[in-house]
Amino acid sequence: MIMRSLWADTAEPAPPTTALQASASADVAIVGGGYTGLSAALRLAEGGAGVLVLEAGAIGGLASGLNGGQVIPGLKQDPEEIVALFGHERGERLIEFVGRTADIVFDLIARHQIPCNATRFGWIQAAHSPDALTIIRRRVEQWQRRGAPLEMTDRASTAAMIGSDAYFGAGIDRRAGNLQPLSYARGIARAAIAAGARLHTDTRAVAIARDRGRWNVTTAGGAVVNAERVLLCTNGYTDNLWPALRRTVIAANSFQIATPPLPDDLRRAILPGGHAVSDTRRLLRYFRRDVSGRFLMGGRGPFRDPRGPEDFAHLQAAMIDVFPALRDIEPELCWGGRVALTRDHLPHLHEPANGVTAFLGYNGRGVGLATAAGLALGDHLLRPHEHTFPFPATRIQPIPFHGLKRLYVATVVAYYRFRDAM
Ligand SMILES: Cc1cc2nc3c(=O)[nH]c(=O)nc-3n(C[C@H](O)[C@H](O)[C@H](O)COP(=O)(O)OP(=O)(O)OC[C@H]3O[C@@H](n4cnc5c(N)ncnc54)[C@H](O)[C@@H]3O)c2cc1C
User: Fold this and answer.
1) Nearest C-alpha to atom 35 of ligand 1 is from which residue?
2) Which of 149, 101, 155 is nearest to 122 (CA)?
3) CA distances (Å), 103 to each of 45, 72, 173, 369, in order?
4) Rounded to 5 degrees, what angle do the CA atoms 173, 81, 139 make?
C-alpha cells in the first residue's frame, strides 16, 4: 500500500493559478480554496463582486480533494431533531435547504459541465444492528413525510445491493450519489475563475486587521489584500488566523484505502448498482467503487495525521470483515484528511466583527453541504439584509479544554473501536 490519494492520481487537471505576489484589493477576500470557499467565490463573482481567494496549498488540496466523494444530503440530525433545535419555521427552512444539497451539487455539475465522474444511484445507510435499523426507519419516515425519495430495504435486498450479508437492512436515499472529489473542486474553481474570481494558491493568510472600515488580510509572503469583507472557509484546517475559531472545532482524521480495479466477478458481486454506502457503527465505515471499479473504504483512523500504511491496517481488516471475498485483494493506495467536528454536530455561522464571516464544522458530511453553504454564503454577502442564509449566526464559543478534548476524542475513538469489534 502506498500513501497517496487516488483522487490526486486520477483527477482532471487544475486550472492554472499562482501565489499572490503583490498587494491587491477586492470586495470580498475568501480564505480557503475548498468547496465552501470556491462555491462562495463562484456565486459572488457571478453576482458582480470582486473576489479574491487565498488558499494556503492547492485548489481542493485538502478535505475537498481527499474525501470519499459521497454526495449525501441532510445533516447528521434527522428532520424532527432539526425542528426541535431550531423551532418550526427556521427548522423547516433548514430541512428544505439541507435536503436539497445533493440537487445543488448535481445541478452545479450540469450547469458548468464539470467532468467529475458524477453518478446518482443513491446512498445506502446500512444497519449494523437491529436497533440501528429502527433508527434508520424513523429517519426514512421523517424524510418521506417531507416528500423526499427515501425508502427501506430488507436484509436480503440490502445484501444483494451491497454484496455483503453483514447488515440487518438499510435505508436508501435516492437523492445521493458519488463523484471524483478533486475533479469536482477543480471544476468549481474553473467556473469561479471564468466568472471573474481571482484564485491564489500557495498563499497562506497570516493576519487580519481592520483598516478604516475595511479589512487587511496579510499573506505569509507579505502581500496585503484590502477588502470590504472577509469570508473564512477553513473547516478542519482552521488555524489561528481568527482568534478562537480553531478551538470551535475538533479536527479529526478520516482515512481511506483503495484497491486496484476489481476483477469482473467481484465487480458483479460488490456494489453492482454503484451506490454510496455508509454504515451505522459508532466509528462508521463508508465505501463505494470508483469509475474504474476500484473498491474504496473509509473510516476513522488514529487521531493524529497518518504516518504510513501501517496506520491503515484497521481499514483493510474492516474491508475483509464486510467483504470476505476481498481477502486476497491488497489495497493499493491509502490517504487521509481532516474533518471538523463540533460539539453539537452542527456546522456554525459566525460573524465576529462587522464584515467578517466564517462557516465551518461539517462533521464529515460536506460535499453537498459545503457546496450549498458556499453558494448561500455568496448570496448572504451579496444581499446581507435579506437574511437568506439558513443557519443562524452564533457567537464563537471555543470548546472548553480544547487541547484535552483532542485526547478525549482519541480515547473515545479507541473505546468505540473496541465496542464495535465486540
Ligand atoms: C477523508 C475524508 C473523507 C470524507 N468523505 C466525505 C464524503 O464522502 N461525503 C461528504 O459529504 N463529506 C466527506 N468529507 C467531508 C468533506 O470533505 C468536507 O466537509 C468538505 O470538503 C469541507 O470543505 P471546506 O471547503 O469547508 O474545507 P476544506 O476542503 O478543508 O478546505 C479548507 C481550505 O482552507 C485552507 N486554509 C486553511 N487555513 C488557511 C489560511 N490561513 N490561509 C489560506 N488557506 C487556508 C486549507 O489549505 C484548505 O484547502 C470527508 C472528509 C475527509 C477528510
Assistant:
1) 32
2) 149
3) 22, 10, 12, 11
4) 25
Q: What is the pLDDT of residues 192-232, one digit of tens each?
A: 999 999 999 999 999 999 999 999 999 999 999 999 999 99
Note the pTM of the prediction, 2 decimals.
0.96
Give the Å distance between the CA of 7 and the centre of ligand 1: 14
Per-residue model confidence as pLDDT tens digits over 146-188: 999 999 999 999 999 999 999 999 999 999 999 999 999 999 9
Strands, DSSP E only, in 316-393?
333-341, 348-353, 356-360
For residue 283, give the 3-state DSSP assignment. Answer: coil
Question: What separation in Å is there between the alpha carbon of 163 and the centre of ligand 1?
Answer: 30
- Which residue has the CA at smallest separation from atom 50 of ligand 1? 67
| CA 51 to each of CA 18, 234, 381: distance values in angstroms, whole numbers, following the listed order | 15, 17, 11
Q: Which residues of 20-32 are buried (b: 16+ CB within 10 A; e: fewer)?
A: beeebebbbbbbb
Contact partners, residue 370, CB within 8 Å, separation at least 6: 34, 35, 36, 39, 64, 235, 362
Pocket of ligand 1 (CB under 6 A): 31-37, 54-57, 61-64, 66-70, 72, 204-205, 233-237, 239, 241, 254, 256, 286, 298, 336-339, 362, 364-368, 370
Rounded Cα distance between 374 and 179, Å, is 18
User: Where does 87-154 have alpha helices with state H?
Assistant: 88-99, 101-111, 130-145
Exposure letters 290-306 (e unless 16+ CB within 10 A, then b)? beebbbbbbbbbbbeeb
Query: Which residue, by CA, sits nearest to atom 34 of ligand 1?
Result: 32
- Structure confidence by residue, pLDDT tens digits, 44-74: 999 999 999 999 999 999 999 999 999 999 9
63 CA to centre of ligand 1 in angstroms? 3
- Site to probe by mutation for ligand 1, drawn from 175, 188, 237 as the one with most ligand atoms within 8 Å of Cβ, is 237
Sign of the alpha-carbon dihedral angle for 339, 343, 345, 350: negative
Helix (H) or strand (E) holding 409: helix 402-421
Phi, psi of 121 (to 5 degrees): -105, 0
